[in-house]
Amino acid sequence: MASVRIDILATAPDLVFQTDIRACSQYADPVAFLDQYPGRCECILATDGPSVNGKSVLPGKGNMPWPKIFAAAENKGGIRFYLLTQGATDLTPMEAIQKDLEIFHALHR
What we know:
Layout (H helix, E strand, L loop, with lengths): L4 H5 L7 E4 H5 L4 H7 L4 E5 L20 H12 L3 E3 L9 H15 L2
Parallel strand pairs: 1-2, 2-3
Helix pairs in contact: 3-4
């Protein structure tokens, strides 16, 4: 089986990933990715998806398995930071930030 580029990069002993969950999910299972590279995922961009009508969805409103992602990140992934990002939405930036934080706290118990 041929190695993919990320597997080749992951051979570097000091490499850590900033993992965008939505982008990762387009090519791989995010939970499996976190499990495959233990201690290497210090930062996660907590983006959900897919987008609806060109608008970003709030965390927990897409198809990401957040409880499983949080468990993998905190048990094996080496997580240090969660970054909440929000793309185009019908909410104002401040409303989106407030909603993102509320949802994050509800999902991450």
